[in-house]
């Protein structure tokens, strides 16, 4: 009898594990924008792109969802080549072509009908820290061009550069960095 109950429990938990749909990030429609205060005179903006990754999204129980994404560190764009070169120098990232920034979720806490706090491990500049993203589901449905199932999400967070060994010139250049993320993903076949 115990074996039968254990088998039923395993079968039930396995069915829940497969309730989430897999979505592949659309690199052409996924960006991370960041901004910081420069000497009190201006807000400077930049962007990372070139996302790759997968979102396992359980629409019925979003707390069961997961996120696993990465992007090349050198995908940073600031609109000024000299700034980008400085950010990739030893003053900041000391980045090579192989360096990537990764985020792997560890928990999802549903906070509203289409919002959640996604906690995860952010690895950047060879440092891993737990961060919390305030996330919003924008839409799930057929993409008007491809007619395939699609999902879109936005998220925000605030990071401290110094937490990742990137604190050069702080506090004159703010240690706090505001982050905005927008991601589209296609349902895997």
General description of the model:
By secondary structure, this protein is mainly beta. It has a single domain (30-187), classed as Beta Barrel (Lipocalin). Helices cover 13% and strands 52% of the residues. The chain is built from 2 helices and 9 strands, in the order H-E-E-E-E-H-E-E-E-E-E. An 8-stranded antiparallel beta barrel has the order 1-3-4-5-6-7-8-9. It is globular and about 45 Å long. The chain starts with a helix and ends with a strand. Residues 1-17 have low confidence and may be disordered.
In short:
The protein has helices spanning 2-17, 81-88; strands spanning 21-38, 42-48, 52-57, 66-72, 100-110, 115-124, 127-142, 149-160, 176-187.
Short key terms for the protein model shown above:
9 strands, eight-stranded antiparallel beta barrel, 189 residues, disordered N terminus, 2 helices, mainly beta, Lipocalin
| Fraction of residues in H or I helices | 10-25%
Category from helices, strands and their pairing: mainly beta
Task: Note the main sheet.
Answer: 8 strands, antiparallel, barrel
Number of helices: 2
Provide the fold topology:
Elements: H1 2-17, E1 21-38, E2 42-48, E3 52-57, E4 66-72, H2 81-88, E5 100-110, E6 115-124, E7 127-142, E8 149-160, E9 176-187
Antiparallel strand pairs: 1-2, 1-3, 1-9, 3-4, 4-5, 5-6, 6-7, 7-8, 8-9
